[in-house]
Amino acid sequence: MSGAALGIEIILVFFLALFLLHRYGDFRKQQRMVLFGTLLAWYLCFLIVFILPLDVSTTIYRQCVSEHEDHGSDPTISPVPLNQTTPNMSAASAKRVSSSPCYKPWSYIPEGIMPVFWRVVYWTSQCLTWLLLPFMQSYARSGGFSITGKIKTALIENAIYYGTYLLIFGSLLIYVAVHPEWHLSWYELQTIGITAANTWGLFLLVLLLGYGLVEIPRSYWNASRHGLLLIKTYFKAAKLMTEKADAEENLEDVMEEVRKVSESIKYNHPLRKFIDTVLRKCPLDYQEKMGRNMDDYEDFDDKQNTYPTEKSLVKLHKQVIYAVQRHNRTRVQWQILLQQAIHLEDVAKNETSSTHQFVHSFPSPEPTGWFSRYVYTPTAEWYWECLLKRWFYRLLSVVLTLFSVAVVWSECTFFSTRPVLSLFAVFIQLAERDYNYLYIEMACFITIFFLCTCVYSTVFRIRVFNYYYLASHHQTDAYSLQFSGMLFCRLTPPLCLNFLGLIHMDSAISHQQKLQTAYTSIMGSMRVLSFIANGFYIYYPMLIVILCIATYFSLGTRCLNLLGFQQFMDDSEMTSDLIDEGKELIRRERRKRQRAEDGESRRREWKERYGNQRDDFSARNRSNHEMKETSYSESSRDRQAKYSRSGSRAERDCIELLQDAEPLDFNADALTDESLESDSGRHTGGRYLSMSSSRNQIFDDV
Predict the structure, then answer these.
(1) pLDDT digits over 115-139, tens only?
(2) Cα–Cα distance, 637 to 643 (Å, whole number)
(3) CA distance 510 to 63
(4) Rounded to an integer, what distance in angstroms lies between the CA atom of residue 190 and that of residue 200?
């Protein structure tokens, strides 16, 4: 199994990142460069999270081997007597060395692989987040019509961005240079850069973590309260409808401006190719409407009209991209929220059902699979939705609350090594004594996964004036995707470094003589900047206590509500009005969907009742028509023989003209020689079948 676990996790993590990108991005419409950059950023961050537990278990094994070799014993055979352990060795290490030999973990990674792996992953992610992704972000957001124009816009926008970073790095460089006892080398410069990046990431990490540690357990607890959840859904519906109306109005304004520009610039104008590019980004109904109103046969005249410049068209192109993306996103979000509200109303109705079978207001448009037919039956769905789901969410909320308390306690006490107060360090050291590597890896993975969930879920919920927003169902724009990749690459390395400090695997913080993990070794020695290693990294995470208290009492929500941003507040009159408005909107959409469902059922019943009769009538009409054509051809030949022997030339011309204009359902058998020789040209006996007795064939073709 040497290295096999590393290879398997690398492959699985790639498919996980690809699945998430498919859920939030759009592979068909978005640029390949944007998708590749976002996928690479997410993939590298997930690799750090999943591979770090293997690095921890491998480091513990090497620590054990190193301790046995220091005492001249075989680490795989004989233990070391307790009286021969060194005094600087920790109690856990001394007990481990004197009690049992070292056992190689199942996921052991050979020496020399992990340092190279971490160096490639870390520096690639840092190049992405500080250099490439900001440039690609501006490139994708640009409204330029050529690659050169987009690159120029991206360079101008990132000039200030890169200048700020150079200023910060230069300040740290000057701070180190003024100390004569420090000799600047490439290793120390590298450490300064890593320290600056991790300091920025840790600053943002604590803010996001303080919110997520409280909000995630509370969200699951509130999810078990169906009444509260339904009221919040009404509140969201009212806010989303307002945003949807604003998006539609904004799209109408932008399309009106596009229409004016399109009508002013004719087909032979030099800027017409730019207008065609803008029109291709518009919705299809607007494209058809503008296409009907275009008069491309008119030539343009430079002397009579004023035309927009290329710079204004670039700005218009950018507005069209943003307006269309926002309109599509709000429309899809409205459909998803409407489905959630209807489902919650169905749950409220089915809770009082005596049959214990879940009944949906509207049938699912998807066909019923074998799982719904045999496992997730209406009875099983009723027990899950109305009875078991709420207790499951409450139990999960309690477990997550305990995790949050453990994280807060460990963040405030992880610097204490004697006694060990960090709960996660205690759990790892207990497993380290028995060489339970599987438990060590699972404990590390669960802890890192919980920390990442608290941080990343907060990132996915961030909304900055609708400028950055991650929306599922392929509705996330390119700018938001790349911004999330930037945040992930900046938050994941300091998060993992903070986790190693919680379990006392970072000697720069714990000040213990222990073997460093491969991940910590590439970070360099933080002692180059002692005020950060001994001050900021230790005491700043304690701020998480204040942030958790503020989140628990919803201080941020109350401040936003005072500033005019409507937030859900139980004691607010504005919240009550929005809840009533959302309830009315959901009721209106339910009636609309019910009418559509009733119309569809009536059409289905009509088709089932009269479909067979219509098929019989159509078959009968086709057979009668074939018989009439046969008899008509025979009678025509007889008439032609008669016409050739008798009658004047004028009469024959009139008869041929009538034959050409004769309808399909004309009864040729009723035509006689006497009628042909009459002065009127058509006898009253000649009639159409639609006037005859076969009335059941009137609507055969309907």
Answers:
(1) 899 999 999 998 998 888 888 888 8
(2) 10
(3) 16
(4) 16
DSSP letter at 688? Answer: B
Tokens of 57: 């278990």
Question: CA–CA distance from 687 to each of 104, 178, 632, 692, 694 (Å)?
Answer: 102, 114, 14, 8, 13
- The CA distance from 536 to 530, in Å, is 9
> 41 near 144, Cβ under 8 Å?
no
User: In sequence order, which residues have a C-beta less than 8 Å from that of residue 389 and are 6 or more positions away?
Assistant: 224
Q: In the prediction, which pLDDT does 673 show?
A: 43
State how far the Cα of 562 lies from the Cα of 356, in Å rounded to an integer.
Answer: 45
Reference 204, options 119, 129, 135; nearest CA is 129
Where are any strands of DSSP class E within 198-305?
Answer: none
**pLDDT at residue 180 is higher than 70:** no
Beta bridge partners of 688: 666
> For position 251, what pLDDT does the model report?
93
Q: What is the pLDDT of residue 535?
A: 67
Select from 34, 42, 148 the least CA-distant residue to 477: 34
d(CA 454, CA 208): 7
Quick one: tokens of 48? 């750090």
For residues 443 and 428, is the Cβ–Cβ distance under 8 A? yes
d(CA 158, CA 486): 14
CA 112 to chain centre: 37
For 220-277, what is each residue's pLDDT tens digit?
999 999 889 999 999 999 999 999 999 999 999 999 999 888 888 877 788 888 888 8
CA dihedral 563, 567, 568, 572 (to 10 degrees): 30
Token pair listed for 538? 């230790």
CB 39 within 8 A of CB 18: yes
- Give the model's confidence band at 391: pLDDT under 50 very low, under 70 low, under 90 confident, else very high: very high
Share of the chain above pLDDT 90, in %: 20
Separation CA 485–CA 428 (nearest Å): 31
Sign of CA dihedral 524, 527, 528, 529: positive
> How far does Cα 362 stand from its chain's mean position?
26
In angstroms, the CA 582 to CA 232 distance is: 9
DSSP-assigned beta bridge partners for residue 666: 688
**Entry pTM:** 0.75
Question: Can you tell me the distance from the alpha carbon of 537 to that of 497, in angstroms, rounded to the nearest whole number?
Answer: 10
**Residues comprising the chain, all counted:** 702
- Specify the residue for token string 């609507």: 699
CA 210 – CA 546 distance, rounded (Å): 8
Residues whose CB falls within 8 Å of the CB of residue 346, separated by 6 or more in sequence, listed in order: 358, 359, 360, 361
Helix 226-264 / helix 284-292 crossing angle, nearest 10 deg = 30
DSSP assignment of 358-403 equals: ---SS--SSPP-HIIIIIS-HHHHHHIIIIIHHHHHHHHHHHHHHH
3 state SS of 666: strand
- Provide the token pair at 583: 């309830």
pLDDT at 640: 47
**Single-letter code of the amino acid located at 205:** L
Q: State the amino acid at position 10 in one-letter form.
A: I
